[in-house]
TrEMBL record, chain A:
CDD domains the UniProt entry points to: KH-I_Rrp4_eukar (cd22525), S1_Rrp4 (cd05789)
Record lineage: Eukaryota, Metazoa, Ecdysozoa, Scalidophora, Priapulida
Protein source organism: Priapulus caudatus (Priapulid worm)
Family (UniProt): Belongs to the RRP4 family.
Span of domain K Homology: 168-207
Location of the RRP4 S1 domain: 74-145
Protein's name in the database: Exosome complex component RRP4-like
Keywords carried by this UniProt record: Exosome, RNA-binding
Domain Exosome complex component N-terminal stretches: 25-62
Annotated Pfam families: ECR1_N, KH_6, S1_RRP4
TrEMBL record, chain B:
Any Pfam family matching the protein: RNase_PH
Gene responsible for this protein: LOC106807762
Gene3D superfamilies: GHMP Kinase, N-terminal domain
UniProt superkingdom: Eukaryota
Boundaries of every Exoribonuclease phosphorolytic domain copy: 21-152, 155-220
Protein name in the entry: Exosome complex component RRP41-like
Family per similarity comment: Belongs to the RNase PH family.
From TrEMBL, chain C:
Keywords: Cytoplasm, Nucleus, RNA-binding
InterPro entries: ExoRNase_PH_dom1, ExoRNase_PH_dom2, ExoRNase_PH_dom2_sf, Exosome_comp_Rrp42_subfam, PNPase/RNase_PH_dom_sf, Ribosomal_Su5_D2-typ_SF, Rrp45
The keyword Membrane appears for this protein: no
Domain Exoribonuclease phosphorolytic, chain residue ranges per copy: 33-163, 189-256
Basic and acidic residues composition bias: residue spans: 409-428
Gene, per the UniProt record: LOC106814860
Protein known as: Exosome complex component RRP45
Region spans: Disordered: 400-453
Family to which the UniProt record says this protein belongs: Belongs to the RNase PH family.
Pfam families the record matches: RNase_PH, RNase_PH_C
Transmembrane segments: none
Amino acid sequence: MAVDLRLSCRIKQKPTTIYKEPDHLVTPGDVITTDTGFMRGHGTYMEDDKLYASVAGTVERVNKLICVQPLKSRYSGEVGDVVVGRIAEVGQKRWKVDTNSRLDSALLLSSVNLPGGELRRKTAEDELMMRQYLSEGDLISAEVQAVFHDGALSLHTRSLKYGKLSQGTLVKVSPSLVKRRKTHFHNLPCGASVIVGNNGYIWISPTVNEEADSTGGFVQDLNPVATADREVVARLHNCILAMARHRMMLSDTSIIYTYEASLAIGSLVKDLLKPEMESEVVTMARERLETES
Amino acid sequence: MAGVEVVSEQGFRTDGRKPNELRRIRCKQGVFSHADGSAYIEQGNTKVLATVYGPHEIRGSRSKALHDRAYVNCQFSMATFSTGERKQRPRGDRKSTEMTMHMKQTFEATILTQLYPRSQIDIFVEVLQADGGNFAACVNAATLALIDAGIPLKDYVCACTVGFVDDVTIVDINHLEETNHIAEFTVAMLPKSEQFVMLEMSSRLHLDHLSKVMDMATKACKDVHLVLDRAVRDHVSEVWQQLGNT
Amino acid sequence: MKDHPLSNCEEKFVLAAIAENRRFDGRGVYIYRPIVILYGHDRGCCHVQIGCTRVLAQVSCEVIIPKQTRPNEGVLHMNVELSPMACPSFEAGKQSDYGVEVNRALERLLRDSLCIDLESLCIMSGEKVWQIRVDVHVLNHDGNLIDCSSIAAIAALSHFRRPDVTVSGEEVTIHPLDEKDAVPLSVNHIPLSVTFAFFDQGRTLLVDPTDQEERVMDGKMVVGINKHRELCMLHVSGKMLVLQDQVVRCVNIAAARVGEITDLIKDTLEKDNAARKSGKEFGFAKCLADVILGVDDLLKHYVDSMSVDTTSVGQTAKTVVDADGNRVQMEVDNAETGNVSIKVPGTGKMSTNTEGGAVTWCEGEESDSDVILLDKNDSTSSEVSSKQVSAVVELSDSEEESVLMTSQDLERTELSKSRAIETRENRGGRCRGKSFGGRNRGKRGRGNGQRYF
């Protein structure tokens, strides 16, 4: 069994470049403005008629609204976002879903499709059988239906493309790397499908060529997956991790470019975990994105 | 205790610093990928790691949940290899519990907790090498970690230790000076408004010297703030570039 | 057991009162509650009382092997026990955060400020030293534990005598007390702590907060200082932000207070020493007896009635609903408010021009007869009470018969018994016990031995 060991002092240090400071960079405690005519948005607080920044980031001004966007923060949902989450708790008439946000999101029993058709009324029996549909530890994909006043999200899986996820890999990245797009479900040409959740949870699974059945996405397909498919999924997993480490924005095009770059340099799937391979693959993908945009 | 002179006649301390000189501070943000925020700081030979998780749903007992604010959970731990003699208990003894309480109190006063009702923010601090000023380094590291996690703060919390011996005020005490039973002040403050979040003092100090010592502490914390601010700005600029923005 | 929380209205009331610089026991903002220091029979045993907070400290000594890093210094070990006896919210065994806070504050105050000369505790360098152990037990918690514990600990340390030791070559002899007199510890200075409670973002400061004030405060600052104006310890807790000048102000106030307390400790120490030398009685039993007047009064508690300034208090009535059910704005005559005097902590007696109004609880004709009867007896009882020279008030509210009564009490009981029987017949025994007599009891002060049945 071969073990790959390396000393961190032997890794070639990348040259320390002086990065240019973005305009309007503020850190906590900085005064943004003393003009009282502005509305204060996220990342600011008012004291003694002065507007202070409370996070480190850049000031964004939209007409009269001033807010400061931090670089990294927990996911704060908006209606219409696609999220991938894990069931944390089964409660009375609702499931609590962990979605990498401030509070666990709620998936109400009335917001899911149950076997037997969409418009069936939820009976007391359904409540008792909740655990049979979704139990603790299951992964689901859902859409944000509403936001409660304290910031918790209310999810729904009322479309056939949402529901319990069966075989695949979950990758967790920062929510700030995922932009809002038209669609978050991508079937990549390499034979895998990717769900890019707005909350930073990304689901990679082999593409299943089945028609959507009427059971509403609760049946898990547990047939064995072929080795070739597994390799594709693993390679995608390492590519996404590499992109996250180098803070590259995630979208279907960037993921495909990174995957193709990893194939181009002919590396094995496991070699992608080495720092030099990572940076090479990511720089190649970045260059390609820039030339094509 | 006879023997070691804390400040020599030429005005230099045992490690060659002048009385009002801080030790060299080196820090890095974002050292861990799993935590929401993390930071590593070296103040001279004192090395501290801090990680922040949150705000997230309250784990464990729901009774801790506060309906109008976030619950701040801190843990101060010293690695068993951090001191000269192996420490028997990394955490749970009286001094660590006291440090944990001080940290909790410091950050509860600084974090804008009203924005996150019913959530929990965890701050974990580990001292890897203890060479004096442990608590101050922990507070500085935790501040950097909180800023890295994007949790809103009123201002930076900068902490420093100040001592008084032989009519000289010395700043940023190291372990050798600590063992000489000198009057020691540990101070954590918000540099912009000059408000003290935490004040601790041990040993004896005559009242007449109090204002002098407190002024020196204020100045030292402001110096620490400059260093930390520079580090945060560099980190933000670097990430900004990497995210593809110009 | 979880402590019951303070209700919202109590909290608001206390905060409003403090905002006007008024405290519930009428103290000034920088005044301590009465401090009582008692010494026990054994050397090193001290009992301190600040108001109702009580703490007992005991010092003991033992010979041990010194620490390797400090071979010729003795060891001072401090421990504060917060047992459920003091307050039900303290847990037995496990040390809560508050316990750690008190322990560490005391450790820093006494150990780190070097109040005891540790080198004098050395017997043989590197082999044998004295370990002095101070155990502080909190008996009753009514706020300000740190100050009370610090006074108890330092007084006990000053009171303690350790056995004398002679070293001849390699032989060490520890002399028992009958051979050689015990030797006092060398106390360098007497550090004491003063606790400040902060309210309203530091704008109002109170010294020596009671338990109620501690529950509503923003934060507290404990200043450890000795008589020579040397700062020994500073500790700020609670979620508040302090400015430098606030700290300086507190420290100066503390310096003034500490001088008085140090004198009190020295005074009591001298008295105790004198008592021991002259062969008089000493110890808790004797001291407690001196403090409380007379052995008969062990069950009773004599309090001077304190009067409360009511010049700024006026009656207000918002809206009054008259007989027809219409809301009417009523004018209130403030001249009717009378003087309020406090007889027992927690109750007040208000004397107004009119002896109360009509009973409006129970409807029907019986109420009229009640009123007549009550009024008649009121006049007699008020005469009786005015004859009483000392308002002996019993604190025991027990339902048992074994309640001490004076002869006047017995007279009144006869009166009330006859009255009670009449009214009970009238009302069919509807209003029983305490609730029936509630109004009158309030007038005469709590628990004066009246038995309504």
